[in-house]
Amino acid sequence: MRASRLGQRLFMSGRRIWLHVNDEEYEVEIEPHKTLLEVLREEFDLTGAKEGCGLGSCGACTVLVEGEPILSCLTLAVDVQNKPIVTIEGLFKEGHPHPLQRSFVEEGAIQCGYCTPGMILSAKALLDERENPSPNEIQEALSGNLCRCTGYNKIVKAVQSAMRRPS
Q1: Interval 140-157: pLDDT, tens
Q2: Domain segments of the chain as ranges
Q3: Contact at 8 Å (CB) between 89 and 21?
Q4: Right CATH number for 13-91 from 3.30.360.10, 3.10.580.10, 3.10.20.30, 3.20.20.70?
């Protein structure tokens, strides 16, 4: 990447990193200040994770790193090198949506859809950890994901419905 300033050439130092995203290995050269959200969206065209607040308050940018939900708008891409990263796009396997994706649609837990990827990934992390969480545990696991359109009751119901589905 080159930038010019008053006739001088300044060279910005890109850094080559390796990311393991949705079971695929990627090598990419980025500026060290790039967030994981920026790299996923700009370099890999994985646009499921959204920038809502840019402050880590809304959860719209949630992805899974090593199975744990993280806020990709606050995470530098260089800090998650060689760690397994799962985005909402990675849940769609062999032409079929994940049980959580199906449940969210069937239970009406989606309206505008902006927060949905983060909600689903946070719920997946919970269900991977606990086989049969209570409604309170579901609410707690989703507490970092804000939704302005739906009532949270349908979202909790969708997670409960997914618990009963085969993968």
Answers
A1: 999 999 998 877 899 999
A2: 13-91, 99-163
A3: no
A4: 3.10.20.30
One-letter amino acid at 142 equals L
Amino acid at 43: E
Token pair for 41: 């969206």
Query: In CATH, what is the architecture of 99-163?
Result: Orthogonal Bundle (1.10)
d(CA 93, CA 33): 32
Nearest by Cα to 80 from 18, 13, 14, 30: 18
Fill in the amino acid letter for 154.
K
Residue range 3-57, pLDDT digits in tens: 333 444 444 568 999 999 999 999 999 999 999 999 999 999 999 999 999 899 9
